[in-house]
């Protein structure tokens, strides 16, 4: 058998990855491009962008080593080759894959001017400068420097050259200063040429020292966006159609960027992207190259960086470089050159032949290739690699590859561990997956952010230290690689797949795997059916677990521990659910026998465990008495209970697994332990999963019927032992239980509403239906359409026949309506809790889901002839969808009362509507529920509109022979009627049918009372409406009497006449405030409105308006008014002031005010006022002249005397 190196040749064109900056003019790199369907699809998209002038800012995303840079190298070459001479060979290759794309290239090269390529590497700290340098470099390479405007750096070099030529002394001083900065002139100028910012800043500092203080201000363009815009415009005259910018290695730029300047750089990128997207005739395109999108970094990038990038991300179109798996294998085929005939000896070797044939059965190959394709592309094309080695190479490189290590460097680079190196070293065996592990292991070590890969490497690296043979190492490395790939649906890490990855024969493989298991290096994970590493780094886990178990109590609450971990949770009775179009379920409950036997009522169980039925799994810690269990089940007598009595006790091994699980969970919560043993966290989590799996396997063995290890008991057909062949027959029995217990459940074919708890969206839709029903709106709008409310309406009311109410009604729904009607009947004339109704609807026979109940209640309430009233405890509430929702949640808090209607009540309500309702409310359509509320609200509004006197007086103002007098009995009824409306929140029904009749007639029993109540209310309302008017009339008559006029005379004339007869002195006398106010009012009186005059006189004389009078206010007013009249009349005219009387006269301009006043004896209040005035005058000091102070005082006094 030959060696591989004798007939295998590696195409070294793939040796190095593409470096866009270095390879942009490399013809051999261009010609080495291998077009695939995937890459041509991406290339075609970029060409379309140029032709259609769109999506000019984009980001190309694809894993390392997939050919992104090579594709862009080709794109730049095609866009820069106007004649097509350099790219002819490449175009011919492309044409073989896609003629359409080749035609687009030819169209662009013939009709679109070339694009200037600019490569950004992202190595500079200042991105603005990076863009400028990259553009300058491109202009230099393409002999276009005369297009470039001068930069600050270029201007600085010009100045230095001018000093050297024309100002020798300045130049010498410059050299000396530069030396102080640790540089020679040549080094300094070199830094300026490289556009080093530090050198430019130094020059700016030096310049003023050598130029008599003048600053260096060259006025050149230093903004990247402006520079690109100007140069792009200038390039047109040089035969260019625009600029194409490639930001290579953008992922590395993002990952390595400093947080502080990232936001600034993102603003630069944002500006460039906007410039590109807004460019028209002279196009600017920019493509970022990344191996994953910013979202895929997760927590690896700080939130500041992610947020700063969002402004740029919104301006970029994402282009995915997706290479099909088949294309990947084909690329390997292109690289490895050989004759298939030379490979046949390896294919015919028995173990290799078996491995290759078995490998095709793995989903990653059988799902991708036909057997013929598999043999040609994978078996022959990827030779000398085993099929799974090629698979591992492609998938691992996609996860961890960098430019330094990728598919192509593994295949073509002559370095340790590469394919070419293995071949050249004389290998004769097919390459197994361990070669992939060896080649990429340093990257596994460094990929800390890739948690799964790094952790698998840590475990494998530790396991390798325990391996004793090359075969064991092969197994460890193969397992690690398959776990890193982590695609169990393609290649599960089972015994067969591990062997196919190692290339070992069966005997050697089994022997080595068993040794690894015996040494606790690898373990079989029963739950997933795969092999994994059992890592014991830093601690003996078994000892640690045993220590934790020893600290646990001797006896645990086993039933609760089992319930926490059990995956036997619920069972759906499928046949019943399908027939009744709803979801009922039985819940598994774990109990020890003593617990079950101590349960006196089944209701207690259903209060604890919310379900339609319970499957009680007895946890037998010791041998028990099955007859005792059967007897107690018979006593409970509830068909919804199924008891499972296991044959096997819950013994030591089962208990030990529970104890281990508790120990693991405690270790996982121990932060200090995990900090010291970081590698163990994943192992503990895996161990936890396996323990849960093993515990559930035992539970299924003990409690599932197909294992025949338990007895089933139920009371449906007497307490007999039941036999079930499997879960299907058991499920059918659960359906029988439901059919028996919930036989009248409604069949409503809409699971969104026919459930216990509905979502907020469905509740909103239900509310629309309920409100429409309660408001007696037209419901035909719900009969069609696909909205939630339409489908719920049809499911609950139309398809069930409830809307029509005829013989087509669904049986269960009809019975629910009957139950609601029966409940309503109980509520006639008395309050009954909704809990009574809900107990019936949710309980035996029905088991109705709460979601539908409010709709049915609304439907029946609105159909009532009588008036329904709903109470929240003792408060009447308006019937609405909101209230019905609350009832649904808390039926125990709400009550229904049905007010029976009668002819007398109807007449009574109509009179009240006529008396109190506004015209607008009378015309408005209203439901029965709203009617009572509207009447009471209107009565309350009327009551509150009355004056305070009418609402509060308890003593009649009028004598028996006067207008406004009310018989004593009637007056007492009026007072009682007023008390009804004193409260803020009133219960409308109670007010109308209980409190008002009782207040007026002292009787609220029987409908006959309402005729009398109606008459009395009419009289009371009339009396209260006119009370204030009558009071004013009586007061006006009394005022006239006091001032000597008849009742039929004018009040205004009477007062004015009296005023005219008073002395001039009395008119200018200063009295108490009420007397002065009275005289001023009479003096200026112009109105003849007696109501207005009385109101004003009441306020002036007593200080309160007549509207606010109390019982004795009238007498007080008469007394005070008489005193005022007598006081004024006592002031007589005389030539000289009487003894003790003072006079004040103020003349301002042509007007004069004269007033007489009597000196008042000093008291504390007047003394305080005098001091306050004096203090105020003193406070102003010299800021006011004496004349100004006097003027202010006189004005204040003048205003006071004019009142």
Automatic annotation (TrEMBL):
Q: Name the keywords, alphabetized.
A: Coiled coil
InterPro entries reported in the protein's UniProt record: P-loop_NTPase (IPR027417)
Coiled-coil annotated spans: 178-205
Key word Coiled coil present in the record?
A: yes
By what name is this protein known? ATP-binding protein
Q: Which organism is it from?
A: Eubacterium ventriosum
The lineage is: Bacteria, Bacillati, Bacillota, Clostridia, Eubacteriales
């Amino acid at each position: 058998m030959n060696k591989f190196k004798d007939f295998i040749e590696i195409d070294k064109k793939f040796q190095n990855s593409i470096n866009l900056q270095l390879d942009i003019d490399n013809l051999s790199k261009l010609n080495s491009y291998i077009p695939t369907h995937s890459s041509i699809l991406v290339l075609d998209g970029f060409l379309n962008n140029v032709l259609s002038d769109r999506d000019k800012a984009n980001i190309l995303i694809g894993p390392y080593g997939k050919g992104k840079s090579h594709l862009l190298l080709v794109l730049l070459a095609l866009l820069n080759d106007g004649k097509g001479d350099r790219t002819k060979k490449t175009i011919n290759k492309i044409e073989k894959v896609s003629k359409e794309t080749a035609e687009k290239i030819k169209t662009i090269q013939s009709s679109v001017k070339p694009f200037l390529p600019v490569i950004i590497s992202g190595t500079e700290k200042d991105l603005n400068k990076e863009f400028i340098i990259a553009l300058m470099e491109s202009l230099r390479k393409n002999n276009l420097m005369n297009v470039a405007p001068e930069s600050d750096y270029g201007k600085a070099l010009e100045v230095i050259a001018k000093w050297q030529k024309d100002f020798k002394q300045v130049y010498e001083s410059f050299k000396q200063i530069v030396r102080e900065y640790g540089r020679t002139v040549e080094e300094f100028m070199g830094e300026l040429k490289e556009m080093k910012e530090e050198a430019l800043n130094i020059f700016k500092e030096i310049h003023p020292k050598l130029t008599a203080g003048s600053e260096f201000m060259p006025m050149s363009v230093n903004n990247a966006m402006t520079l690109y815009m100007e140069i792009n415009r200038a390039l047109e005259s040089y035969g260019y159609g625009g600029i194409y910018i490639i930001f290579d290695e953008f992922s590395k730029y993002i990952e390595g960027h400093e947080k502080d300047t990232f936001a600034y750089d993102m603003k630069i990128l944002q500006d460039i992207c906007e410039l590109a997207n807004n460019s028209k005739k002279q196009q600017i395109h920019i493509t970022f190259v990344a191996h994953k999108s910013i979202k895929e970094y997760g927590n690896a990038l700080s939130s500041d960086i992610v947020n700063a990038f969002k402004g740029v991300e919104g301006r970029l179109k994402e282009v995915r470089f997706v290479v099909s798996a088949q294309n990947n294998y084909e690329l390997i085929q292109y690289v490895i050159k050989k004759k298939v005939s030379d490979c046949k000896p390896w294919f015919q070797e028995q173990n290799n032949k078996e491995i290759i044939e078995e490998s095709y059965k793995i989903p990653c190959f059988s799902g991708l290739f036909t057997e013929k394709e598999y043999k040609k592309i994978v078996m022959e094309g990827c030779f000398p690699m085993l099929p799974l080695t090629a698979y591992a190479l492609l998938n691992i490189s996609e996860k961890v590859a960098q430019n330094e290590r990728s598919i192509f460097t593994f295949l073509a680079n002559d370095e340790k561990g590469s394919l070419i190196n293995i071949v050249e070293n004389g290998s004769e065996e097919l390459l197994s997956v361990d070669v992939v592990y060896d080649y990429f292991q340093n990257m596994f070590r460094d990929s800390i952010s890739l948690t799964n890969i790094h952790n698998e490497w840590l475990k494998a690296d530790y396991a390798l230290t325990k391996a004793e043979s090359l075969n064991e190492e092969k197994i460890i490395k193969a397992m690690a690689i398959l776990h890193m790939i982590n695609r169990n649906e393609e290649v599960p890490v089972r015994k067969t797949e591990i062997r196919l990855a190692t290339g070992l024969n069966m005997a050697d493989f089994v022997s080595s795997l068993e040794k690894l298991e015996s040494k606790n290096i690898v373990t079989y994970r029963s739950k997933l059916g795969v092999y994994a590493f059992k890592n014991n780094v830093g601690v003996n886990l078994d000892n640690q677990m045993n220590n934790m178990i020893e600290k646990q109590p001797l006896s645990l609450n086993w039933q609760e521990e089992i319930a926490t971990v059990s995956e036997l949770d619920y069972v759906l009775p499928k046949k019943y659910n399908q027939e009744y179009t709803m979801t009922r379920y039985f819940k598994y409950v774990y109990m020890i026998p003593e617990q079950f036997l101590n349960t006196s009522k089944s209701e207690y169980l259903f209060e604890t465990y919310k379900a339609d039925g319970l499957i009680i799994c007895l946890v037998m810690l010791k041998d028990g008495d099955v007859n005792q269990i059967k007897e107690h089940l018979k006593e409970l007598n509830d068909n919804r209970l199924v008891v499972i009595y296991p044959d096997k006790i819950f013994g030591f091994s089962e208990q030990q697994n529970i104890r281990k699980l508790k120990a693991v969970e405690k270790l996982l919560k121990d932060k200090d332990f995990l900090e010291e043993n970081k590698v163990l966290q994943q192992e503990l989590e895996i161990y936890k999963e396996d323990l849960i799996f093993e515990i559930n396997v035992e539970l299924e063995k003990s409690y599932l019927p197909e294992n025949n290890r338990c007895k089933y008991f139920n009371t449906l057909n007497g307490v007999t032992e039941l036999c079930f062949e499997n879960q299907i027959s058991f499920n059918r029995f659960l359906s029988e239980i439901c059919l028996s217990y919930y036989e009248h459940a409604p069949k409503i074919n809409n699971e969104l509403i026919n459930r216990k708890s509905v979502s907020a969206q469905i509740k909103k839709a239900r509310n629309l239906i309920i409100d429409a029903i309660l408001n007696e709106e037209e419901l035909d709008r719900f009969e069609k359409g696909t909205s939630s409310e339409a489908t719920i309406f049809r499911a609950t009311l139309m398809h069930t026949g409830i809307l029509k109410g005829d013989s087509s009604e669904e049986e269960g729904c009809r019975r629910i309506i009957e139950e609601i009607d029966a409940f309503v009947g109980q509520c006639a004339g008395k309050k009954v809790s909704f809990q009574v109704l809900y107990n019936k609807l949710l309980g035996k026979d029905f088991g109705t889901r709460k979601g539908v109940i409010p709709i049915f209640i609304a439907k029946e309430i609105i159909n009532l002839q009588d008036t329904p009233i709903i109470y929240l405890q003792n408060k009447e509430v308006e019937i609405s969808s909101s209230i019905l929702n609350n009832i649904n949640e808390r039926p125990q808090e709400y009550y229904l009362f049905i007010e029976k209607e009668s002819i007398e009540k109807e007449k009574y309500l109509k009179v009240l509507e006529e008396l109190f309702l506004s015209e607008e409310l009378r015309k408005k359509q209203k439901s029965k529920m709203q009617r009572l509320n509207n009447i009471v609200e209107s009565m309350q509004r009327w009551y509150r509109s009355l004056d305070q006197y009418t609402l509060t007086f308890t003593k009649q103002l009028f004598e028996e022979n006067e207008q406004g007098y009310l018989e004593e009995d009637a007056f007492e009824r009026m007072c009682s009627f007023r008390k009804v409306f004193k409260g803020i929140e009133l219960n409308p029904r109670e007010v109308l049918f209980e409190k008002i009749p009782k207040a007026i007639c002292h009787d609220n029993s029987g409908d006959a009372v309402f005729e009398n109540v109606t008459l009395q209310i009419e009289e009371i309302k009339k009396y209260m409406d006119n009370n204030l008017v009558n009071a004013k009339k009586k007061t006006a008559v009394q005022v006239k009497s006091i001032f000597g006029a008849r009742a039929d005379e004018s009040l205004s004339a009477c007062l004015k006449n009296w005023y005219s007869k008073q002395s001039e002195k009395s008119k200018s006398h200063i009295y108490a405030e009420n007397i002065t106010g009275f005289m001023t009012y009479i003096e200026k009186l112009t109105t003849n409105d007696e109501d207005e005059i009385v109101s004003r006189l009441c306020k002036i004389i007593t200080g309160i308006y007549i509207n606010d009078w109390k019982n004795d206010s009238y007498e007080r007013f008469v007394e005070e008014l008489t005193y005022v009249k007598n006081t004024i009349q006592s002031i007589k005219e005389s030539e000289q002031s009487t003894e003790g009387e003072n006079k004040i006269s103020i003349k301002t301009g042509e007007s004069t005010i004269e007033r007489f006043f009597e000196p008042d004896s000093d008291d504390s209040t007047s003394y305080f006022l005098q001091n306050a005035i004096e203090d105020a005058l003193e406070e102003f000091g010299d800021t006011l002249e004496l004349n100004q102070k006097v003027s202010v005082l006189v004005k204040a006094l003048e205003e006071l005397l004019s009142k």
